[in-house]
Write a structure and sequence with these properties.
This protein is an all-alpha fold. It has 81 helices and 2 strands. A two-stranded antiparallel ribbon has the order 1-2. The longest helix is centred in the middle third of the chain and has 21 residues.
């Protein structure tokens, strides 16, 4: 290729590059290079094309080849620069800098602008690489070139500013040259500024000063710059602030520095450096608190000053805020960063100060931290002071060996150093080597006498060395005073001075001053605070104590300052401010929840406030935390006692006595609890229980007086306990008392009521000797009155009674004289004065009036005044007094009794209402007897039964049980009141409480036995005899009757009845005939004739009985005689007689009286007539008229299964209604419900809660002796087993047959039941058991049971039929044809029981005798509508012709017939479903399935799933 072709190829390559056809260009270049390997332009073009084709390595190689060929040509260098600029690789930046340097050389003499551009690029590259020295040198070249070119001042100013910006970031990593370049740039920039002074110039000056402040070696230049700027800008505070911080950081405060601080604060009072400077000045002047305040304030504004933080820590150390000092040191170290040069000195100082602060904190963790801080100090091992601090740290940490080692080394190497001797002293002091410690501290003081700590520890050494040195003023006191003088902020030394003045000098006032000073200096010093408060209280300066406590509690955060809260809480508790005490003690517990004493105090505060439940919890918590706190346990028991939880309180008191037998408060508490229980028992008329409690109370009070006979209240409580027996009957009071109380040596003695009351008086006397209080005089007076009352009741010693009443009056007058404003004393005086033996009614009236005047709301005195007026015959005044009492307290019982007595006196209709109201309010003997009297009087009047008054007072108000209850209590307390026992017997008879009636009448008779009133005695005996007869004790009744002259009609009739019940019929006839002769009314005579007729019937003289009954009905027929006549007809199956008698009875007896008996007799008559439907209708009609009569509902549920079994569900509902109306019918009704449910086909799968099995189980629980209930249980179990079998599940109640048969036999033997009934029940059970055994497949057991039954009753057709069925079933199961002889036997058996439905039912299992089955079921259906027989006929038809229409019709009749048992319907449903699927009748299938779902027929639904699946 010629030269011309080369040029043409290069031109083509240039054109291709211009057209961006870089590959084409490469081809042309390569062609050139084949000809000329060293063609510069070809290599440049290759580099350019390769770069554009993103082939950097090829491009780089081409450019380098070109440079190699011609190193001073620009094109290759420019291309290489462009290539490097585009590259993202970091490793090419160094090469790019070299390229820029070469370009600068090449451009230097040529293009000035391009030189400047490359220079800028090079500076930017160096700046990115943080090569600040190269940046500075290159930029200076640029400025120099600009200067040479004669650039303007403004342009040069901007260039110097640009240089400042470029080098500003280098402040942290500057070398000296760069630093100087930056400072030079600042100076040139400031000198070249246009406007001076001006904003731009001012900002440059600030930046210049800031830069200088970061250069530790430019202090002189910094000071000059600050001063120059201050001269130029006198109002700007910045240079002053920097200068102040500079002086602070230097650590030496010259006059110039102080002048700067003052000038800065004058210029800006809120300037941080200025305030810091002022704080340092205060520190130098020993104004430590002001220093802390100023430094803290300054550092909030200027926090990045480590020296200031150090000064703050130093000031905090001076006022002994050691923990704050540690925090300040930490802040200083954090601000310091990585120290170098002068900063390293600051770091060492800060670490040393931190270690000293941590050592003053004096705990192991702080000591560990101190050691770590000391380890960071540079060259720490060469500083003896630092070594001494380390020794102290080891000592605090408990590392005695290391501390001793350092001490010895220091004493050897630096014996002149005070710290060496002090460390030795601290070690000896901690080891309690006080003599050696004394020497060491004296040596330390000799070398450094101004250290307060050394004097303090020397004082402590003397304090603990011995009592002599402790009391030696020249030693202990002198050293403490010197320490306090040297360091007035050392709080602990003032505490020790307080200890000295309090414990040694006895100067409480000075001691309090010292403690107060100590606490002011150190708010965490609880000991000083507590002592200051305690001494202030002792000195009577409560305000000072409170001010201290208030100050602490106001500042305290939650969970702190426990001692202050506790002290203030206790103060409030002492001064009767329990609510405030509670709040403060709760705050104390937040600080220490485990403080048992604090919990105890809180309990006391709650108790004072009346929060008893919370107090109880607090005391319990205290005793849990500290089981040894007996007082807390005692207070817990006392609170339980206050709350009326006497049993719990007794248990707690007993717990105390187990640990401390002679703890008198617990003994007293126990006695009080038993006394309160006794009073409660007396209120409830549980007198025997009360006597037991009184005995125990006396025992504990006596034990308490053994230990503390000097305590008056114990003797008073003994008196109260003894006197409390006054209401109890003397026969019940036999109390055992410890011999020590009676002046005996040991053992116990039994005291009667009179002796116990006398003992009570003596106990009150002992209490009066110890403390003559008016209340005890009153108690003694009442005791004498109770003694007199008792003697009056027993009717002995009239002189003694007068003497006791006189003593009582004198005691009460004494009480009134001592305290004439107490209404209780006046009231008691009035009661005693008004008693019949004294009869001083004027004094009584005066006393009651004085009592009312003393206490306006005084219901007791008003009531007593009313009683006084009533006793003296002043009815109107009595009424007014009682009315006032009622208005004052409507629930007070005695005023109502007073009004009732007035009503009774004046003959008011309200009397009974008033007496009843008294019994509703509470129990009282007067009210109880009064009400019972009125109830009995009302009951005796037989003519008032239908009156509104009777219905309201007796029936609606439930008067008989209410009167019986209160009268029972009355007789418990008054066992000698014959009239009360008579009334109680009468009421018990009405309530059918026969045994209780006998006991009451017997007691009444025994009380009247020796009385002069023989008529009353005879009446009581007749009552007793009548009740005995009702109880069935006929022998005793006859004996009682014969012991009295039988002249009255009631007595003769009573003994006649007793003879009859005993079976002495002839004697009974004679007695009745005698009664007939004395009977006055025709009705009585009719009753006697009826009774005689019954006796005749008993003797099987039916005609004679009829004659007598007819005789009754001819004259004036009584309902009893007609009922007897009707019953006679029923018993003898004489329908004509029964019907006629019933007709006559219904004429004479109408209305609701005797409705049940009338209905029962009528039903029995209709049943005898065979009118089964009318039986049920008759009872339903009666219920319609009397829907609230439970007996009628019960009768209906009993008759439905017998006479209307298709309505069995209704019978079950009737039973449920009866049960709801009267639970007492439960025994009978639950049995009837179960029978009805069985008849209706109910079972457990229908209703788990209400089914025959559940109901009969309840009935048996209520009455386990009823054999019929056990028989129904057998039927219910059989029904449930049948149901579960139909549902393809396992029966649960198997193998019970024999057990239940045995149970029924046992129960029938125990009960006195008619023989026929027993026989029928046992036979039924036997048949049921055999059927159950047969159906469960136990054929051999069933046959054995049949055989056993036939042995005892060989002519029993039902058993014989069952035996044949069992035998036939065994043959059928063998799948053999039945022999003719067997069939003939079965036919004979059926014919012998032709009226039995069961006899005609047979098992369709053999095709040879369908005609026999058809005949048997047809006969069964003739006898009754038997669902089972209908099912068997349908199954026979199904077997004969499964698909016939008749088959479907017969099965549907069984399924859809209402009232058919579900068990039978389920079987029919199963076969009907198969029939319908065979006929593909899906419409009827859907109807049948809905019916199955409605009845819960699981079997049918499962079969439907199988058949539908296969279809």
């Amino acid at each position: 290729m010629s030269n011309k072709e080369v040029k043409a190829a290069l031109k083509s390559a240039r054109d291709a590059i211009r057209n961006k056809e870089y590959k084409e260009a490469l081809k042309h270049c390569k062609a050139v290079l084949k000809q000329e390997k060293n063609n510069y332009n070809a290599w440049v073009f290759i580099g350019l094309a390769a770069a554009e084709l993103e082939q950097p390595d090829q491009a780089k190689g081409a450019y380098k080849k070109a440079i190699e060929l011609e190193p001073n040509q620009l094109l290759a260098w420019q291309g290489l620069a462009n290539l490097y600029e585009k590259s993202n690789q970091t490793d090419v930046k160094g090469d790019l800098a070299d390229v820029y340097q070469k370009l600068l050389e090449l451009y230097e003499s040529g293009d000035k602008q391009k030189w400047c551009d490359v220079c800028n690029k090079l500076v930017e590259l160096y700046h990115q690489e943080k090569k600040y020295l190269e940046v500075a040198e290159t930029w200076q070249k640029l400025i120099q070139r600009k200067q040479e070119e004669g650039a303007e001042k403004a342009e040069l100013h901007q260039l110097w500013k640009k240089m400042i910006q470029l080098l500003k970031d280098s402040a942290q990593n500057q070398d000296n040259k760069t630093e100087q370049s930056l400072l030079t740039a600042f100076e040139h920039a400031m000198n070249s500024a246009d406007t001076v002074p001006g904003e731009d110039h001012q900002n440059l000056y600030k930046d210049f000063i800031q830069c200088l402040s970061k250069c530790p070696h430019e202090t002189a230049r910094l000071e000059k710059a600050c001063n120059d700027m201050m001269a130029l800008y006198p109002t700007v505070s910045y240079p002053l602030e920097v200068l102040c911080l500079h002086f602070i950081q230097l650590g030496t405060l010259s006059e110039e520095a102080l002048h700067c601080f003052s000038r800065l604060l004058e210029m800006d009072a809120s300037s941080g450096p200025g305030i810091i400077g002022f704080g340092i000045k205060c520190l130098q002047e020993k104004k430590y608190k002001e220093a802390v305040k100023s430094l803290t304030e300054g550092l909030q504004k200027t926090s990045q000053c480590p020296a200031a933080w150090h000064y703050l820590a130093e000031a905090q150390m001076k006022i002994h805020k050691h923990r704050d000092a540690v925090l300040s040191c930490n802040q200083a170290l954090e601000t310091l960063g990585t120290p170098e040069g002068p900063s390293l000195r600051w770091k060492n100082l800060i670490l040393q100060l931190k270690a000293e602060a941590l050592i003053k904190i004096a705990d192991a963790d702080a000591a560990e931290e101190a050691i770590k801080a000391l380890e960071q100090i540079v060259d720490a091992s060469s500083d003896p002071v630092v070594l001494a601090i380390r020794g102290q740290a080891y000592l605090n940490k408990g590392l005695m060996d290391q501390a001793s080692k350092i001490s010895q080394e220091l004493l050897l190497s630096h014996p002149e150093l005070a710290e060496s001797h002090a460390l030795e002293g601290f070690i000896h002091y901690s080891q309690k080597n006080y003599e050696q410690a004394e020497r060491s501290f004296l040596n330390a003081i000799e070398r450094k006498a101004e250290t307060a700590e050394y004097h303090q520890y020397l004082g402590l050494t003397y304090w603990f060395m011995s009592d002599e040195t402790k009391k030696d003023k020249g030693k202990t006191l002198t050293q403490f005073l010197k320490a306090a003088k040297l360091d007035s902020y050392l709080g602990s030394v003032f505490r020790y001075l307080g200890n000295y003045y309090r414990d040694i000098a006895g100067d409480k006032s000075r001691a309090r001053g010292c403690y107060k000073k100590a606490f002011e200096l150190d708010g965490t010093d609880e000991e000083s605070g507590t002592a200051a408060v305690d001494l202030s209280v002792e000195l009577g300066d409560v305000d000072t104590a409170l001010s201290i406590l208030n100050e602490v509690t106001e500042k305290a955060s939650t969970g702190t300052a426990k001692w202050a809260w506790l002290h203030r809480g206790l103060y409030y508790l002492r001064t009767g401010q329990p609510s405030q005490a509670v709040a403060d003690l709760q705050a104390a517990l937040r600080a220490d929840p485990k403080d048992s004493n604090c919990w105890e105090s809180l309990g006391e505060a709650y108790l004072s406030r009346g929060s008893y439940s919370t107090a109880l919890k607090s005391f319990r918590k205290a005793s849990e935390l500290n089981p040894g706190l007996v007082y807390s346990i005692y207070r817990a028991a006392a609170v339980e006692q206050i709350l009326g939880k006497y049993e719990n309180a007794i248990a707690t008191y007993q717990q105390i006595l187990k640990e401390t037998e002679d703890y008198v408060p617990a003994l007293k508490g126990l006695g009080e609890c038993y006394l309160m229980l006794a009073r409660s028992a007396l209120d409830n008329y549980l007198d025997r229980k009360a006597v037991d409690y009184i005995e125990q109370a006396l025992e504990f009070f006596t034990r308490a007086t053994k230990h503390r006979p000097d305590v008056s209240c114990l003797w008073k409580l003994l008196g109260d306990t003894c006197t409390s027996v006054h209401v109890i009957s003397p026969t019940k009071v036999n109390v055992q008392v410890l011999g020590s109380l009676l002046g005996k040596n040991a053992g116990k003695q039994t005291l009667k009521k009179s002796e116990l009351l006398g003992l009570g008086g003596r106990c009150y006397g002992r209490a009066l000797k110890l403390m003559p209080l008016p209340s005890i005089w009153c108690d003694l007076g009442i005791n004498y009155y109770r003694q007199a009352e008792h003697l009056t009741a027993v009717g002995t010693d009239m002189n003694g009674i007068s003497e006791l009443l006189e003593k009582s009056l004198q005691c009460l007058k004494k009480a009134v004289r001592l305290d004439s404003k107490n209404h209780l004393y006046w009231n008691a005086l009035g009661v005693v004065a008004s008693c019949s033996a004294i009869g001083n009614y004027a004094l009584a009236q005066h006393s009651f009036i004085k009592s009312v005047q003393a206490e306006q709301i005084n219901v007791v005195a008003w009531t007593n005044l009313g009683v006084l007026y009533l006793a003296t015959g002043n009815i109107e005044q009595a009424h007014e007094a009682f009315k006032v009492a009622q208005s004052l307290e409507p629930s007070y019982l005695l005023c109502w009794i007073g009004q009732a007595l007035i009503a009774e006196t004046v003959g008011s209709y309200d009397t009974m209402d008033l007496f009843r109201h008294t019994t509703e309010l509470s129990m009282h003997t007067e009210g109880a007897k009064g009400y019972s009297h009125w109830v009995c009087s009302t009951l005796q009047d037989k003519s008032n039964r239908n009156t509104e008054l009777y219905l309201y007072n007796i029936v609606q108000m439930n008067a008989i049980p209410a009167a019986q209850v209160v009268l029972s209590k009355y007789t418990e307390r008054n066992p000698d009141d014959a009239s009360a026992f008579t009334m109680l017997g009468y009421l018990n008879e009405y309530l059918h409480l026969k045994r209780q009636a006998v006991d009451a009448y017997e007691r009444a008779a025994s009380l009247l036995k020796n009385s002069e009133d023989t008529e009353k005695y005879n009446t009581a005996m007749q009552n007793y005899g009548r009740s005995l007869c009702a109880l069935g004790q006929c022998d005793k009744a006859i004996e009682v009757y014969t012991s009295t002259p039988l002249t009255e009609f009631d007595g003769i009739v009573g003994i006649a009845l007793a003879y009859f019940k005993k079976g002495l019929l002839q004697e009974s006839i004679k007695a009745y005939e005698k009664a007939l002769s004395v009977a006055e009314s025709e009705q009585d005579k009719a009753h006697i004739l009826t009774a005689l007729a019954i006796i005749e019937y008993k003797q099987n003289k039916v005609d004679a009985a009829k004659t007598l009954l007819f005789k009754c009905s001819l004259k004036e027929p009584s309902t009893e005689s007609l009922k007897a006549l009707c019953t006679l007809g029923l018993v003898k199956q004489d329908a004509t007689l029964a019907t006629a008698a019933l007709k006559e009875l219904l004429k004479h007896e109408k209305g609701d009286d005797g409705i049940y008996e009338r209905c029962l007799i009528a039903s029995a008559v209709y049943a005898l007539q065979g009118r089964n439907v009318v039986v049920q209708r008759e009872v339903s009609k009666a219920i319609h008229s009397n829907p609230d009569n439970p007996a009628l509902w019960s009768l209906l549920s009993r008759l439905v299964p017998l006479y209307a079994s298709q309505k069995a569900k209704g019978g079950a509902v009737a039973g449920s209604v009866a049960h709801v109306l009267d639970v007492n019918h439960g025994k009978e009704v639950l049995l009837n419900i179960a029978v009805n449910q069985l008849a209706a086909g109910c079972h457990m799968l229908e209703d788990e809660k209400n089914n025959p099995l559940k109901n009969i189980q309840k009935a048996i629980h209520l009455c386990p002796d009823n054999p019929a209930a056990w028989a129904v249980l057998m039927a219910a179990c059989h029904a449930e087993n049948t149901i579960v079998c139909l549902n393809n599940t396992q029966p649960k109640r198997t193998g019970l047959e024999m057990t239940l048969v045995s149970t029924v036999s046992a129960k029938t033997g125990e009960n006195n039941l008619p023989h026929n009934y027993i026989r029928t029940l046992e036979d039924w059970c036997l048949c049921q058991a055999i059927t159950s055994l047969e159906e469960s497949g136990k054929l051999s057991e069933a046959e054995a049971l049949c055989t056993k039954g036939l042995k005892s009753c060989p002519e029993h057709p039902a058993l014989f039929l069952l035996l044949r069925q069992v035998q036939c079933r065994q043959l059928l199961q063998s799948h053999k044809e039945l022999p003719d002889t067997i069939l003939e036997e079965l036919r004979k058996t059926v014919m012998t029981s032709s009226t039995s439905v069961a006899a005609w039912q047979a098992n369709v299992s053999n095709e040879h005798w369908p005609s026999l089955v058809q005949e048997a079921t047809t006969e069964a259906l003739k006898l009754s509508s038997c669902p089972l027989a209908a099912l068997l006929q349908a199954l026979l038809q199904y077997n004969r012709k499964m698909g016939a229409r008749e088959t479907r019709r017969m099965l549907e009749r069984v399924v859809y017939q209402p009232g058919n048992p579900e068990t039978i319907a389920s079987v029919a449903r199963w076969y009907l479903l198969q029939h319908l699927y065979a006929k593909d009748d899906y419409e009827l299938i859907d109807v049948l399935i809905e019916n199955a779902k409605a009845n819960g027929d699981v079997r049918a639904l499962e079969l439907n799933e199988k058949l539908s699946g296969s279809a």
